[in-house]
Structures are given as C-alpha cells and as structure tokens.
Amino acid sequence: MGTPMARNLLAAGHPLTVYNRTREKAEALRAQGARVATLPGDAARGAGVLFTMLANDEAVEDVIFGSAIQNLGRGAIHVSASTISVELSKRLADAHAAAGQGYIAAPVLGRPDAAEAKKLWLIAAGPRDQIERCRPLLEALGRGITVAGEEAWQANLVKIAANFVLASMLETLGESFALVRKSGLQVHQFAEILNALFRSPVYENYGAIIADQRYQPAGFKMRLGLKDVDLALAAAESATVPMPLAGLLRDHYLEGIARGHGDEDWAAIAKVVAENAGLDGAAAKPRTGTAT
Amino acid sequence: MGTPMARNLLAAGHPLTVYNRTREKAEALRAQGARVATLPGDAARGAGVLFTMLANDEAVEDVIFGSAIQNLGRGAIHVSASTISVELSKRLADAHAAAGQGYIAAPVLGRPDAAEAKKLWLIAAGPRDQIERCRPLLEALGRGITVAGEEAWQANLVKIAANFVLASMLETLGESFALVRKSGLQVHQFAEILNALFRSPVYENYGAIIADQRYQPAGFKMRLGLKDVDLALAAAESATVPMPLAGLLRDHYLEGIARGHGDEDWAAIAKVVAENAGLDGAAAKPRTGTAT
Amino acid sequence: MGTPMARNLLAAGHPLTVYNRTREKAEALRAQGARVATLPGDAARGAGVLFTMLANDEAVEDVIFGSAIQNLGRGAIHVSASTISVELSKRLADAHAAAGQGYIAAPVLGRPDAAEAKKLWLIAAGPRDQIERCRPLLEALGRGITVAGEEAWQANLVKIAANFVLASMLETLGESFALVRKSGLQVHQFAEILNALFRSPVYENYGAIIADQRYQPAGFKMRLGLKDVDLALAAAESATVPMPLAGLLRDHYLEGIARGHGDEDWAAIAKVVAENAGLDGAAAKPRTGTAT
Amino acid sequence: MGTPMARNLLAAGHPLTVYNRTREKAEALRAQGARVATLPGDAARGAGVLFTMLANDEAVEDVIFGSAIQNLGRGAIHVSASTISVELSKRLADAHAAAGQGYIAAPVLGRPDAAEAKKLWLIAAGPRDQIERCRPLLEALGRGITVAGEEAWQANLVKIAANFVLASMLETLGESFALVRKSGLQVHQFAEILNALFRSPVYENYGAIIADQRYQPAGFKMRLGLKDVDLALAAAESATVPMPLAGLLRDHYLEGIARGHGDEDWAAIAKVVAENAGLDGAAAKPRTGTAT
Fold it and tell me: Mean pLDDT for chain A?
C-alpha cells in the first residue's frame, strides 16, 4: 500500500525519502526520484512531513517511539495513514505535542489498485492549520478528503467504523448467497439483482469476487480483517457500545483463520458462511440465469 | 401498496376490478375507471389475470383458498405480488396447476412512494409463457423486471433474500452510528462519508432517516420487518443454512416490538441498537460538522 | 422412549393397549401383557386414558385429529407426553374439550435409559381433577412430578424452557472445552474441575460424553435438538421475547446437520464448536492430568 | 475478597503482613495479629511467600513491576490469586524467574461469603515443588485445590474458562426466566423445577437471586463480569477459538453498564435480558405456584 502512495507523492513533484522493511520495495522507488533510508528513523530526520503507512499498532509504536519521534524536528508533522486504534492515536497526539511536533491522522479507504489509480478516499482529522499545510500532499494521494474533526483520533474512529460497515456487507453477501445457492438458484444472477437494487460499487465488486470464489490473491487479508474488527470492538468497548454484528464478524474471521484461510481475501468470510451451510468451497457453476 | 399499483395498471389502459378489505380504498379507484368488487372472490370471477398484493401468508391463503381459486377460470393466471413464504408459493403453484390455472410470483421491491412513481423493481418467476403473457402488466408497475427462474417460488426466495440484505444494512447503520455518536462525533457527517464511500441509495435514504431519527410515519413497519426476517429464517432452515445475522435482526426486531416500537419504521432497528448503548431516542443534535 | 414407559405402566399393573408404527416394537410388549392395536385410532377406542409419546407436532396432529379424537370416548383423558409446541397444546385442549374429553400435558425429562430405570421427571399441567385422576399412571413412569399449572400448555412451555437450559449447557461445555483444549490443556481434567465447582449431573454426564467425543449412538439426536430449540424460539416469538442464546443454539444445530452430523447425539453441538475452532473431531488424548 | 483470605491465613497460624489501598481494611486485621505495611512493596520485603489478590491486570502490574519484584528476595514465591490474563501470567512467570523468585497462580472460585466460610475452591498451577511448598497456605484458604498443570498460566486459563461457564449459566437463567415470565408463569416455580432437574448449587443460588431480582448489594459486580468475559475472549483469540456465546455475554454486560447497572451484581445480566423483552425491572410477583 505504501508503494503506490509514495509513487503518487513523487509524481506530484514532492521530494521524498522512503523506508521499508523490505529494502527492495524502497529501492524500486529510487528510479522515480526517491531517496532511500536505511533505518526507519532516518526517514524522519529533517523531514517537514513524515507519513507512516504500517500494518498495525505495534508497527507504528515501534517506528515512532523507537526512533522517529526523536529524529523528527520541532514543527514537523507526522501524518499517520495507517488504520490504528483510537487509543494509540490519542497517545501519538500527546507525544508529538510534547515534542513540539504536529500530528494528524489521515487513514485511507481503498485497496492497493485504488491507491495505484489515485482513487483512495482519505479521512483526515487534526488541528485545522496542520491539515491545511498537508492538504497538497493528501490531495496527491486520492480522489477526495473528508475532514472528520480537529482531533486526530476522530479520523481513526471514522475509518474503523467505515471498515466495519464494509465487513458487514461481506457477511451479508455471504449469508444471502449461501441461502440462494443452497436453495438451487444462481448466485451470479442474484448478485446482479443486488446491483440493480442497491447500486453500490461494494456489492458490485465484492459480489463478483464472492460469486466467483476468487479469494486469492488477497487484496486485503482475512487476518487484517480480524484486526480491523477488533479495533471496532475496542473502540466500542471504550464507549460502552454493544456491537453484536461486529462480534459476529469477529467470530467468522476467527473461524476462517482457524480453518487455514487467514491469508485469503477478507471477502472469504463468505466462504466461512458457506462452509457452515455445508457448501464446499469449490467454484460455483458458471452463470446461466436469465435477466431482463 | 395496492392502491398505487392499481393506479398504474389503470393508467396504462388495463381494465381492472379491485377489492380491498377497506371499502373506501377500493372506491377511491372508481374515478380512474376501476370496477369495485364486494368480496375478494368476486375480483377473481372472469379475470384473465388476478393480482394479489396482501400483507402475509395468512391473508393470501384466506383469499385464494377461501374463494378466488374456485372463481378464477381455467387458463387465467394468478400473479402473486406479495412477499410470501417459499413454502406457500409452492402450494399455490400446485393448487393453481390442479385447477388448470396459471401462477407466477412477482414480488416488488420499493416503498409506497416508489410504487406511486412507477419505480418499483419486480422479481418475477414462473413458466416462461405465463410471464410473457403478463409482461405488459408487470411493465406498467415499475422500472424493471428481473426473471429469477421458471418456478414461481424462486422469485419469492430472491425477494426474501434481498429484503434480508436491506435489513442488514439498517442494522449496520445502527451499530456504526451508535459507535460514532457515543464517541462524540456527528452522525450526519458520518452518514455523508458512508455515502461518499459506498454510494448506495439505501445508505443515502436510510442513513438520513436514522441520523434524523425520523421513524414515524412508517414507510414499512417494524412488525413487517420481523415478518420478512422470519421468512428468511424459515427458507434458510428448509435449506439447512445457518444465517446468524438474520437471527440477530430477528432479536432486534423483537426487542423493538417488545419496547413498543412495532408500528415505527423498520429503520428503527437502529433505535433499538442506540438504546442498547444507553443512548436516548431523542433527536440527535443538528449537523455542524465540516466536510470538504 | 415409548417402550420403557409402556413397560413401567404394565409393571405397575395397569392394563394397556399399545400402538407403534413399527409393529415389532409394539409386539415386544405383548409378553408383558399389553394388547397390540393395528391402527393408532384403535388404541384410543374404549380407553379411559390415552397416552401419546410421539416425535413432533405433525405426528401428534396425525394421530389425534386423524382418528384418535373420534374414537376416544366422552370423559376419557388424553395425556400428551411428547414435547410439542405451546400452540398445538392449546389447540388440543380446545378440541378435546369440544369432544367432551379431558386433556393434560405431561412431558417427560430424561433420556431412554432414565425412562427404563423409572427415573424420568414429569412436568404436568391441566385441570386439577384430571391430573389427580391420572396421577397413579404418572407416578408409575418416573421419580417425580411437578405440576406447572391448570392449563395444559403451561407444562409444554416449562418443558421447552428446560430443554433450552440443557442445550445451552452443551454449548457452554463446547465453547469452554474448545478454549481449554486448543490452549493445550486436558479437557478431561477441566471436566472434573467443572464437576467439582458446579456439581450438576448434567455437566457430569455430558462433560464426559463431550470430552470422550462419544456422539454415537445418539441418546437424543441433533435433529431433535434443533426441533426443541425451534419450539423455544416459536414460544418466545409468540410472547415477544428475544432469546439470542437460543438463536445461537439453532445456528449451531443447523451447522451440525449441514455438515452431516444430524443423527449424532445433540451433545455434538460441541463438535460443531470444536470444528469452528479448527479442531478435528478425532478422539481427544486420554486423560493424564493431575488433580488433588 | 482479600480480607477473609487474610483472616483464614492468620487463623491457621501463619505470620502475615498485609497491605490494602484502603488503609482501614488493612488495620482491621491487626487485631488478629497481622502486621500492616504502608506501601505495597513493603509487604513483599522479607516475605517467604507473597499473595496478591487484586482487581485486574493493571493493579497486579502496578504492584509487582512497581516495587514488589525488587523487594521480594531470591527464592521467595509469589502466589497470584487474582483473576488475571493468561498473557500477564506468562510475563510474571518470566519476570520472577529472571529475579530468581518462584511464581505460581492460584486463582480462587467463590464469592466473598464463601471466602469467609473457607469454602473457596482453588485452581493452582506452577512448578510442582513451589506448589507443594505453598500447599499449607493454600489449604488454609478453601475447601479444595485442583492442580491444573506445571505452568502458572494454566490455572489462569482454567479460572477464566470456569467463570465463562458460570456467566453463561446466568444468561441461560435470564433467557429462560424471561420466556416463562412473559408467558404468564411463575419464575419461582420454574426455578424450583430447574433445581430438581439440574441439581446445581449455581442454579439454586443464582436462580433465587434472579427470581427475586436481588441485584444489590453486588457479590460480584457487572463491571467485573465484563472484565472476566473479556479475559475469556482475549485467551480465545490468542488460541484462535471463536466463542460466540462469550461474545453474547460481553454484549449483554456492555448493555447493562450502558444502562447504568454496572455496579449491580453480575447476575443482573438477567435484568438486561428481561428489559430487552419489554419486562420492567420491578420485583416479580411473590411465588404462588404449586409443586408437588
């Protein structure tokens, strides 16, 4: 995910130093003009704005508290684009403020191909002036920005809630497809009906993935799906909000991982549901239904 | 729901005899050229095509097995537009076939205002020739028709599954809004973000209803929402398909009815979820968030 | 189940005419003095008290409305020992009253071996004088009787609720054993700890069955477990009571049946839970834990 | 909980230094011969065995890593009696080993009145010789000890799993009582039937509490119930085990806390269930049912 974002920043003419655990990924950006850092903290040194796009809370904590916060200058801004917990985002805001640095959250919505095509949607939050200073960089990354509020964690919460909505649409597709398929109807036709009725690109894209049972290669892995649902449940518990549907998603992701599907696309939650209905994971029959 | 459908049939130039339990509703159609029947069976006598648009299985059973099937001539076709069970649809197919009559199912998707505007979507199923004979009538009712198969019950199953998808979107809105609202963010702004991301008219329409807490007057009552989820669970049990999300919807509709919200719009499932998070049902604060 | 009950009635000296779909089962009772009826209705003819012990609502409806109610004399009493729905029990009460007959419900708790050992527990309900008239017969069947009320359906409701409690204990054992087992501990030892703490014969008996994974032969089949949970959900919906745990049990029984375990013991709900955790159904290792 | 445990240790003749955040609680033990420490770390200094009985992970971390581990001598043993996470128990084992100290876990089952009456049950785990050295102390605390294994965390896992079983019995009572009560039957009579059938002291004690709706004063608060269910879910996620019933308990405890019942007894999960069925929390009618 970081690579296409870096490419878009470079393409927009912004000077950029990159770091990646997998050195080759960073080196591949040199041709486009990026400088390559040897250590994560080196990317922070002298930067006006530091972007982080990492897998989870632990990775962000390691990089920021490990060295980046010491190396980042006073007045520089950390833009956290990762999907992290509300709680960590609050701690980062405090730590950067104590170091005389800025901090905004700008998590992104979209899969790697959307990032490549500059079609991400960004949810930003933080002090208004800091967001404005970073706006040209954020605009280089996607098709639009929504400002969620003046405290960085608010963007993280919105991202977490939006991902919950997306995951719940996958579960919904899974259950309705299992019902339709086991009753003897064509799931591809049913997917088309849902498109006609609900007209969401989510049902269109994921409906096709699930009807075709194309869970590999993963655009976003089931393990990460579990991580995101856990973030929703943690935020909900902090706010004392029961979210039984989020709990159901969590159980199904755990089932999928327990059965060995953890590296498949998170849409494979529909496969878990199908297996629970005694349907095998084999490819569904090709579409032959009629629609007018 | 029957009234706007009848109007559209009359407007398209089809002669029509109408029956409604509430005589005034039927009489109101006389000005547009409808004849009014005194008993449900009378509407069937001499008809080439008989439409039924009734509240539930029991009402359809009463009308059809009570008198309509005797009064309907051989070769006539019964078009069942109600949302009824798969099991009743199969019994109707058998009974009409035994009486030398045709039978197709053509349940409709859309609320009364969509029916009025001729914007319903129809899911039809049954013998191909019978559907073709009825097509001009079906086209008079909405904006499109999907043919789900050659057995009538298939349309009922698709309708039931599509309604389950819709209800699950309401639950999803309810849980995500409760999380966002109790964390101190603006639900109207969050609703806009969901629209930008998922671009479904369902999220747009219902997102606004739920954010505004406009649950009365009901476009579709919570009691009917429960009925439809029960139809999904019954069809799923027949096919031995677990649908835990449908079970969750059922529990929340039961909770809403138990707390006295049964005559509110089925979107008030979001109110049940909010109450379970300790949020009162009072109107949310007016929208003041910023979005760019 | 009917056979040991019949044996106990005969052993207590009551004259008895028996009917069973499987003629051999009825014939086997002839040696103990039973007369054997050729048709179910024949068993009712001339009887002072008619017991029914049948699989489900449909079987009871067939027998009673099919012929027994016509053949049973005025003043005779029908004792329904089957686990049937509250709704059917109310219809039976009305029908028998209209025919000048008595009707009480006396569902039994216990498995076939408990019936054999005269250790069933009976929940009886109905008009007080009718229960008293039948008391010697009921006492011949088990170790105790609880009178639930003066309307027969009340006993059916209590039976349904008690079976829900039992099924929920099986789910609880399943989830806790899966956690303990997959964490690397001995389930047999954990089962012993539960016995020490909670001292219920249910945990003792079923804990051993589940720890040993002895799901065949079934004492009570998973399909019947589903039927009983469905009765609880139906009664709960009539009373507008959400029972999310009952919904969870239903989903797990459906999963088990969908995966081909429908004829195993209903304790195999724990196998469904174990499979969902990626544990195979193979026998657990023999017990080697230490306990003092 | 710590006070009755301290009393039992003193009564058995063991010299004891006590610390409690609330000084009065510690002082009250002086009359029985306890020495009172001013700081938690002081209680550790010079002790051969250090017991901790604290509310949650955070409290144990504060005390042990804050000062106790430095003050405790080489060769001394820390006996952790609190219900803490598997993960913290593993960290404690490592830290104490590194400091040349012993560490066993010995969480207790039972409420304060059971502790008072020396009727706790202890689940111990850790190196065999350390458990043997502490056995006289453990025996002074309760009616029995089960050794769960040679690694301390195993006792914590068993405790967590056993508490999950107990909480699930409360949910089960809640749902079945709501069904019975809203159907118009007496819950006290139903509670007696459950006792006759399942013969567990848990159903007996908690069945009476729930039937009487005696949720205050709390023997164990709903907030602590939520904490324990969260420990089960965390251990289950580590082992990749879905526990949907634990998720349901979590939702109901969150609902209860959100509605303001957080300081009531954790049996009030049954009140949450009753409220969801539209039943008020007012006292149930006194018992008038008949049972024989």
Answer: 94
- List the catalytic residue out of C159, C221, C227, C271: C159
Give residue C281's pLDDT: 58
Measure the CA–CA gap between A18 and A26, rounded to whole angstroms: 6
Which residues does chain B have within 8 Å of residue A290's beta carbon, measured at their own beta carbons?
147
Which of C123, C132, C20, C128 has the alpha carbon at shortest distance from C80?
C123
Whether chain C has a CB inside 8 Å of the CB on D234: the answer is no
C-alpha separations of C145 from A47, B183, B289, C86 in Å: 82, 54, 65, 19
Quote the minimal CA–CA distance from B132 to chain C in Å: 38
Of the partner residues C240, C255, C258, the one whose CB lies closest to the CB of residue B258 = C240
Q: In the predicted model, is pLDDT for residue D118 greater than 90?
A: yes
Residues in chain B predicted with pLDDT less than 50, given as ranges, are 282-292
Contact D207, D195 (CB under 8 A): yes
Contact: C254, B241; criterion CB under 8 Å: yes
Q: Quick check: B102 and B51 in contact, CB under 8 A? A: no
Strands C102-105 and A108-109: unpaired
CA distance C179 to C171: 12
Res. D289: pLDDT tops 70: no
CA distance D67 to B152: 75
φ/ψ of residue D104, rounded to 5: -130, 155
The residue whose two tokens read 């949720």 is: D215
Quick one: how far is CA C172 from the chain centroid? 20
In chain C, what residues touch A258 (CB-CB under 8 Å)?
276-278
User: Pairing state of beta strands A77-80 and C77-80?
Assistant: unpaired
Rounded to a whole number of angstroms, the distance between the first and last alpha carbons of chain A is 40
A240 vs chain B: nearest CA distance in angstroms?
7
CA B39, B40, B42, B44: dihedral to nearest 10 degrees? 180
Class of residue A152 by CB neighbours under 10 A (exposed 0-12, middle 13-18, buried 19+): buried
Question: Between the CA of residue B96 and those of B50, B51, B90, B100, C78, what are the distances in Å?
Answer: 12, 14, 10, 6, 39
Closest Cα to residue A243, out of A253, A232, A254?
A232
Position C71: which residue type? N
Contact C113, C219 (CB under 8 A): yes
Mean of the pLDDT values across residues D41-50? 94
In the predicted structure, residue A292 carries a pLDDT above the cut 50: no
CA B149/CA B105 separation, integer angstroms: 10
CA distances to C189, C190, C192, C222, D110 from C292, in Å:
11, 13, 11, 36, 18
**Tokens 């003792």 map to which residue?**
C204
Q: What is the pLDDT of residue D124?
A: 97
DSSP label at C261? Answer: -
Helices (H), C117-186: 128-139, 152-182
A257/D244 touch (CB, cutoff 8 Å), yes or no: no
Interface test with A, best of D228, D230, D240, D248 (most A CBs within 10 A): D240
- Please indicate whether, in this complex, the C-beta atoms of B172 and A158 are within 8 angstroms of each other: no
pLDDT for C103-126, tens place per residue?
999 999 988 888 999 999 999 999
- For residue C246, which of C268, C260, C258, C231 has the smallest C-alpha distance? C231
C285 is catalytic: no
Cβ D245 vs Cβ C248: under 8 Å: yes
Q: To which residue do tokens 């009826």 refer? A: C37
Check residue B196 and give its pLDDT: 87
**Angle CA B17–B22–B26, to nearest 5:** 30
**Residue D130 · residue D106 · CB < 8 Å:** no
In chain C, the residue whose alpha carbon lies closest to the alpha carbon of D188 is C148
Q: List the structure tokens of A123.
A: 């949810």
Q: Which residues of C touch B243 (CB under 8 A)?
A: 251
Residue C235's pLDDT is: 98
- Is the dihedral angle over the CA atoms B135, B137, B140, B142 positive or is it negative? negative
